[in-house]
Task: structure prediction
Amino acid sequence: MSSLPEPGSGRPDVLVHRFRSFDLPFHASLRDHFTILDPWTDSPPDEPAHAFLARRAGRARALVCVGPTTLGADTLRLLPSLRVVIGTSAGVDHIDLRECSRRGIAVTNAGAAFAEDVADYAVALLLDVLRRISAADRYLREGSWLKTGNYPLGSKLGGKRVGIVGLGNIGSQVAKRLQPFGCDIAYNSRSKKPSFPFPYHATVHDLATNSDVLILCCALTEETHHMINREVMTVLGDQGVIINVGRGSLIDENELVQFLVRGELGGAGLDVFEDEPNVPKELFGLDSVVLSPHRAVITPESFEAVRELTVSNLKAFFANEPLSCLVRLE
Result:
């Protein structure tokens, strides 16, 4: 257990909320400015996290929510003084926004800190699925090139009709990267974005009907849960490709597996899943599918950008200055 400054030590208390298995890479940087309260490092081994919160974090006004760590109403009720949640991920579906709104607790996210890296990854997944790079790599390593000859041809990216679901920080960066390939880009978003020249489709079904590829970049909400369903996959067709760098539950995963196994969908590049880290085993043997263990956002450069944003937002909060990357609370 680390030595924990007592209340009144001069530095504002900041609670770090994380899964035990999740580390905060910039812990030391935060300690330069704040008194960090972390139940996993600052409490006795036999003390439950909720007991630590009740004993030590009742006066904490700021909380850093690490990655997708669930922050529900039960935990928030243990923090009567909380006024801001600083999220370190782009998505906030793991945070009880309704309870935060009711309590007047501001919530921020990672904003554009991960956008470029996730966009790079989305395009890489798409290229891999179309050109079968990972599958060809396995084919070569297994000795099949020597035994059975050339690997089957993949498909080119240029000229593909790509529908982007969610033209926000990440989606707009995906579009920027796909334009030089000569892709025909369209999008679906909560509303039409006049600053972008791409065709807008009011529904995902309509977008899929007019696309060869869907790239999912949007947030997970009650409205977007399972938005990629049987009907959407059907109109996308047996040559269609789905790339998901958003959240696993944007897709009806059971339906997706069946479509891929039956060959009723052309392929998929998946960085996120409904029940991580559990991934449907039926996908493991499919050369048309590229799987990734939720790593699209993670580079040293993106961690540094999130560190700067987190420290900046915490300093702004304690100085009563405006916060960056505020999440809209319904």
